[in-house]
Design brief:
mainly alpha
Length: 250
């Protein structure tokens, strides 16, 4: 199997055993490092990833014996399936290519996570910083770094920082998110991430901020804004219920 050819081939045209071959390369420490890097990158595609590949990538990411660039690539490769699982949930097993058990194992916090993330972010290396900011979306305790990454000139780091800020409902990132959704020049992927962040950070204000985008001529943007408004309304109602319950108890 020629990895270079696969890099230039649509995933749906890959051989049926592509995922198996990727895993064989990833666990083979005698294999060429560049081949393992390509295998790690391709293994994260949603057409091939499964529990075995996800476990393999997770193991590489957490192993100090593996080359740094390979660990970074493995971490980034896990991004799409983590995002899909977070978005779709596990009510329908066909919606996500990994099981809930694997998803929980991938997200389960371990002692080394915070130190590894902090070290990667402080390294100054672009790939490692990107990996770190991606990981900050799943590991608590990096509000200051996320806020700093929101100002990054690197579009990939900026995007991951928006995702992280939204995931943790980072209040200090609110003005940044509003600026992104109000700016007609915001790239579409970044805009979609900011839409979700607005609903997460201040759900009570999401309807006002996202109203125009919900009427967008772009179907994807309109759908994202509409869904964010719906989710924000649910979250806002839950907050109101909690406040009423607290007042009743007091």
């Amino acid at each position: 199997m020629d990895l270079k050819t696969l890099q230039n081939t649509p995933p749906w045209d890959w051989p049926r055993d592509a995922g198996k071959k990727f895993r064989e390369l990833l666990i083979d420490h005698r294999a060429n490092e560049s081949d393992r890097l390509v295998a790690a990158e391709l293994a994260g595609d949603l057409t091939v990833i499964n529990d075995e590949l996800a476990d393999c990538l997770t193991a590489i990411m957490g192993s100090p014996d593996e080359p740094e660039q390979l660990r970074a690539t493995a971490a980034i490769a896990l991004g799409p399936v983590l995002e899909q699982a977070e978005t779709n949930g596990f009510e329908d097993p066909d919606d996500v290519p990994i099981t809930q058990r694997t998803f929980r194992n991938m997200r389960a916090p371990e002692r080394w996570h915070q130190n590894a993330i902090r070290s990667a972010y402080a390294s100054g290396d672009k790939d490692w910083m990107l990996t770190a900011v991606f990981a900050m979306r799943w590991v608590r305790g990096f509000d200051d770094q996320v806020l700093e990454a929101l100002e990054s000139a690197d579009p990939e780091i900026h995007y991951e920082a928006v995702q992280a800020a939204g995931n943790w409902g980072l209040a200090a990132a609110w003005s940044h998110m509003v600026a992104l959704v109000d700016d007609a020049g915001t790239p579409k992927p970044l805009l979609l991430a900011a839409i979700g962040a607005v609903a997460s950070i201040r759900p009570a204000e999401a309807r006002i901020i996202l109203a125009d985008l919900a009427d967008s001529d772009d179907e994807e943007i309109a759908e994202a804004a509409g869904e964010a408004i719906r989710m924000a309304a649910i979250a806002s109602d839950e907050e109101d219920d909690e406040e009423v319950g607290s007042e009743w108890i007091n």
